[in-house]
Amino acid sequence: MSKIFKKALHFLGTGDAFSRHPNNAYFRPDEDTLVFIDFDARNFMRAKREIERKLPKRIYVLITHMHNDHVSGIPTLAEWLKYRCPDYSDSLHICAPEKMLVYMARELFEYRNLTDDMVTFVTTDAMCREEKSWLISAIPTEHVGEHFEGLCYGYLLSIGYLRVLYSGDTRTLDPFIPISCDEFYCDMSNFSGPDRPHVCWELDGEALIRKADDCDVYVMHMSRETREALKEEIEAAGLFIARA
Length: 244
Hints:
This protein is an alpha/beta fold. It is built from seven helices and twelve strands. It has helices spanning 44-53, 68-71, 74-83, 98-111, 124-129, 201-211, 224-236; strands spanning 10-13, 24-30, 33-37, 58-62, 92-96, 119-123, 135-140, 153-159, 162-166, 183-187, 216-220, 240-241. The chain has a six-stranded mixed β-sheet. It has a six-stranded mixed β-sheet with strand order 7-8-9-10-11-12. Strand 11, helix 7 (224-236) and strand 12 form a beta-alpha-beta unit.
């Protein structure tokens, strides 16, 4: 039987940047709130259906980094909420570390012509301080070259009674392995080159298998070819594959 599950997190897509539906997750921490983790434009229609299924009072996008497959759909979502979703009365709340929000504001206001009433920026520090927050901490990590240094994050989340660890796009497991959690959603690839931008099964699989002794480990952000190539090994090792 195939070990493909979804638990604390649901997914709009679990593919890589070049897939039909790239890796974007979502969850509802309470009855009134919907949180998307990143937002690619190709996943807009799936997100729209989830919003309309049970309209929240507040919607967040929690950003891991600013590659196109993680933020390209934010302007469309903000405009749709304002102009085509009359029962939603709030703005779209964008949550990220402060440095990332500076770049995001420039992108949305200067280049995409959004207005102040469409979006609200919330730093991760501020969100962590809120009472009963769904965000426990932001976790700096490494993904690609120097131009993204200090701009790539994973997150530790509180969803129901679960501590949920989400890697975002990362080339290293070092920031995540020591963190105690119930579920760990981890970036995955089968590229083992020295400049790899993602966790690699060949190089990092043993560390993930050890991590699975203490929590459920789900791998994500894989192309169809990578998923098919690694599926048997991943499942034989007791790990799970995230699926939309």
